[in-house]
Structures are given as C-alpha cells and as structure tokens.
Amino acid sequence: MAEHQQHVVQEGFEGPYDAKLHEGRIYQKWMDSGFFNPDNLPFAPNAEPYIVYMPLPNVTGTLHMGHALDNTLQDITVRYHRMKGRKALWLPGTDHAGIATQFVVEKDLRKQNVSRFEIGRERFIEKVWEWKGQYGNLILEQLKRLGCSADWSRTRFTMDPEYAIDVQKAFIHYYEKKLLYRDFRTVNWCPRCGTSLSELELEYKEEESKLWYIKYSDEVIVATTRPETMLGDTAVAVNPHDERFSHLVGTTVKLPIVGREIPIVADELIDPKFGTGMVKVTPAHDGNDFEIGRRHKLPLIQVIDERGKMKFTLPEYEGLKAAEAREKIVAELEKEGRIVKVEPYPHNVAICYRCSSVIEPIPSMQWFLKMRELADVAMSTVQSGKTKIHPERFEKPYFDWLTNIRDWTVSRQIWWGHRIPVWFCKNTPIADNPNFLTQNEFVVSLEKPSTCPKCGTCEMEQSPDVLDTWFSSALWPFAGLSESDKKKYYPGHTLITARDILNLWVARMVYSGIEFMGEAPFQNVLIHGTIMTKEGKRMSKSLGTGIDPLKYIDEYGADVARFAVVWQATGQDIRWDETAVVGGRKFTNKIWNATKFVLSNVSAEVSERYDSARILEGATDADKKILEELKTLKVSVGNDIESFEFSKALHDIYEFFWHSFCDAYLEVSKEQMKDESKKESTEEVLYYVLLESLKTMHPFIPFITEVIYERLPKKENNTLLITQW
C-alpha cells in the first residue's frame, strides 16, 4: 500500500463510522463555504435558478417526524439541483403562528398569575417578541442538525417589517378591488382563544351524541343535536320538494319554552332524510342556518355569547354554559311532554385546531375575503398544467374545496399578528354592530389618517383585530423575498408539503402569487404521506404517540434518520418501522467499510492518473458490468428525484452499492488486482465507482458522503455540495 493511502486510512478511517465525530464540523464547513446561498455558487452568474419554498414551521414548533420527512425530501431536491449546476435556492423562514404563539405566551403568563388583559396589548406584544427571541428559532437550528442546506442568510419571519408591509398592502389591494368586505354574520368561534376561525382551522372529533326529536306542535316535529340553541330559533325549515310538509310552508308554529311564533319556510339546503325532514333554524348559531336566515330575511337572535355561555334568554338559563343549558332545556321539554324520542347519534364535533376547545358558532362583525374569483384562478392554474400536483390523486380534494368554497373570514380577535390596516372614528364604537358598515365609519390605510372623515376631530383608532395567520403565509413565495430577489427568484419551481395544508396554504399561495405577481409561485407541488405510528395512529407528542427524530440523530446521526424516513416514503401514509433505522445504520457502516477497502487497495498514483474519460480502457467484463450498472443508476436516480420518486431512488442506490458493488464487484476486484495486467484498470474502476456513488448518495445521506469525499486523494472540489452530478 502506498504511503499516501496508508496516511488516509490511518488518520481518517479508524474504527466504525461515528456520526458524532463529524456532523457538527461538516455542517459548519458547509455554512462557511457560503454555497447554501445560490449567489455565491461558482457557476452562479449564468446558471438557471431552481427555487424550493420551505413550508414555514411555526415559531412555537420543534422538530417532529413530519418535519424530518418533509425537509429531507426538500434537501434531496435542492442538493441534487445544486450539483446539476443550477442556482438552487431553498428559501427558509418561520411563521408567527398567531393563535398558537399567543396561546403559549398566555400560558407562561398564567404561571405568574397574570393575564394579557392586565398587562395590556403593548406590553403583551413585547412579551411575545421576547419569547420569540428566546425560542422562536429552535426548530431552524434543529433543521440544521438534520443537514438542511437552506439559504439561512435569507431566513424570513412573517412578522419582519418588510414582510408586514406586503401583508398590509395585500389587504388594501383586496379592499380596493372590492374583494374584502366587513359583515355581521355567524362565524366559527373559539371561546378559549376568543377569536373567529375559518372552516379550515377546525378539526373534528367524533362524539357519541344524541338526536332529540322535539314536538313544536302536533304536525311539527324537529330533530336536533343541540336543543339549547332552540331559544334562538327564528324558523322551522323543510325542503321545497318534500310533499309531506308543503301544506305547512308559509304558516307559523309556536316555539316551545319561549312561546314566540316562528314561520315555517322551504329551503333547498334541507335534507329531507335527516330526522323527520323538519329542521329548526337558528341563524345566530349555525353557518347553514345563517344562510337560510339571510335568504328568508329571518331575525338573528343570539343566545350564546363569546365565552360559550347563555345570554339574552329567559332568566333561568342566563349565564349557564351551553352544555348545562342543554340538560335543563331537555328536562323542561320532557316535563311538557315534547320529547318524542331520543336516538344515539355519532356526531362530528368541531374543535379549535390549536386548543381543542369546542367551537361555538356565533354572530360577529368580521372581515371576509370573497373567494369565488380567486378560487377559479387557483383551479384553472392546475387544470391548465401550469402548476402540477403530485400524486395526481390530490387534485380532487384541491378542486373539491375550491369548487364549494365559502368566503374566508380573515379577521382574528387576538393580539399577536398583522394588525388590520383599518382605522375607525374614535367617537364611533367598533364593537360588533350590524349598523356600522358604511364607508365613513372607517378608513383603510397603511398610515393613520390625519383627519377623521366621520367626526373631523378625533385621532382615529386602529382596529384591534389581526389577520388570519394563513392570510400572511399565503404571500410567502414573494413576501419572503427582497425586491431584487423577486426579479431573480420568482416564480419558483417546487413545493413539498403535507396534505393537511393543501387548501389551508397551497391553494392560497397559488392564487395569491397570480394576483400579486402575475404568475403561479411554483410549477410542482409534491404531497407526501403522513408518518403514523406502527399501529396506524396519528403521531402526537401530547398523546404520547410521537417519535422525536432528534433521538435518532443523537444516537445514530442525521444520515440514518434521513435514510429511515425516505426509505419508507413510498407515497402512501407511513406506518413507522424501526427496522428502517437499523437498515440505515447498517448501510452507512457498509459505505464506510467499503471505502476503507477501496482506499486500502488503490495506489497513491491513482489520484494522478485517474481519468473518468478513459475508464473503460483495459476493462474486464466485470468492470464493464459494474460501470454500466452505475451509469444506469445515475440516470434513474436523477430521473426519480426530478419526478419526486425519492424512496425508489434510495432503494436503487442501496441495491446497487450493497449488492452490485460490495457483494459482487469488490470480490471480483480482489482477484483482478492479483493480476498485474489488470491491477491499474481495476484500481481506477474501484475509485471511479466509489466517487460516483458518493455523488449519487450525497443528496440522501450528505454527512458521511462528505466525510469520505474529504479523504479522497483526488477530487473535483473541496466539497460535494458543488461537485458535478
């Protein structure tokens, strides 16, 4: 063995591969190179860009298995395109996560026996910024441990001043285009968070509820899961095609307990098969009932308040929680003989996606974005193929939501977030009031108006509401870029994300990009599977079913964690299997040991005479076979990455390196090197296959491949980051 090769093996390959000894140093090397920033790439001036948008993790978040999968797939994509000579930009950032972050900071305050109302809005916002400074970048640091090669110099936060201006301008743009309006209507309300929510921010849990059949009169029997809201009934409705009740339409019935006469109306929204076919209509406490109420000009009678308690009702129910009122009302109805029957009824109950409190539909003054025009734009972009969703089956939920879309409630009654650029006359109350809808009650403007158009004397007061977090994150592909970057790096190419935000975020980014930049923000959207427990349950840290990917990184290294998630990411939901971790560990050891063998068996001169262009000179049949297999592998892996078949690519890499190279060719090479006439060409083939295998594996397992690449006697660059694919 040559002296140089002895030095390489002795100094760099003692014992098994230990990720802990290398990963921190290697990542710092990458950071110091500056090559995560596409502007610094040696081929940057004339290279075409390739842009990947990081789905914004919440500042409250910590790394979970979904993040590990999502960001590993993005990193594979970015590293591959960078090695292909493209100006690969992976744009990172964090989302201010309005409700979630406020919830966390309020929780901290409660430990000190203080509420946000006691310290006031200004001091509370200061507290949130203090919290963000301490904990807000935790998840980005964890992504670095995973090996993510995002351009951290471009990291954006959705509350950054420049970003905030884009958000406010978007609000004003929609308002001036008459797509934004203010209205008093029934919305989804979280009593704990004290704010409205859009329908996409709701989660549902199945409860064994009851369906009560209540006799309003001998002919009018309604079925309901919520007897407590009947105090706010303003009609009974039937389907206009239901001949059983056509003779009742236009008549009235007396509302039990309350004694109020209410009309019987016909509406297409009523399902004749539900219950008796007769439905109570409570416009103030059900979204569908609200629409029925508007069509039939029914009054809006609110009987449940923002805290989920009864109000404006009979004295005996005033102040009761809704559930308590239900029991009392059912007891009264039974006493009056009005309960015809009760059936068990599995019922999906809407809960807040942040705090899991039961949602209470209530009437409230809110800002709404008209969605039909924007939804049509988002649909046509995918229908035309300008933006493609992979796998194609996810087009259906995308189109379904956009087809049946409702106007979006964009205002939130919390303190942390982008404050709405709306200014009210200080002498006019801004509480929920259906009469305050005229233009002269408010001004939409970035800056506080110098003169109040209403009274002419007051200093106008800014709306206390903030915008839905998703309103601002919908602007991420361009609001996350500087003005110069918008010219260089918009539109982008690829978004990789989970299905649960297909409509919350992806669709909204599509129409926002077209609305404000004239083009869709990306050409491809990959929707990957969800990682479940081995039993098929949802992973959740709070439920004790979560698995921390940092555990694997700490114990085995980032490459093993990356291998394990990609190995199982076949496109379907993943039932997590620990054997993939074991497989990843064995594979990295195999690579390490194979490298030791190769570098122990090639002479120092191979680094001088090595020339990939003449590698086939003097090649044996075994040499030609492994070289042909390698050539096929590189083409197929490249194609698979570009078509987002990451797991297939990794399986092929594994099969080639472990079986074709290690099990077969290394054994043949031992015999060939005993023959002096074959020794030099065998050494060159060994070296070439190892080098090209490292390049092919690098996007998937970047740390170990970089560590080995450093130790090669001849290499094209100082780092695999920019070594040609």
- What is the CATH domain class of the largest domain? Alpha Beta
Which architecture of the largest domain per CATH? 3-Layer(aba) Sandwich
Average residue-wise pLDDT: 90
- Distance between the amino and carboxyl termini: 30 Å
**Main sheet: strand order:** 2-1-22-23-15
Percentage of residues in helical conformation: 40-55%
Instruction: Give the amount of beta strand, in percent.
Output: 15-25%
- How many strands? 25
Number of domains: 4
User: What's the Cα radius of gyration?
Assistant: 32 Å
Principal-axis shape equals elongated
Question: What does the largest sheet look like?
Answer: 5 strands, parallel
Structural class, from secondary structure content?
alpha/beta
The CATH topology of the largest domain is what? Rossmann fold
CATH-assigned homologous superfamily of the largest domain: HUPs
Number of helical segments with 4 or more residues? 23
Low-confidence stretches: 1-10, 431-439
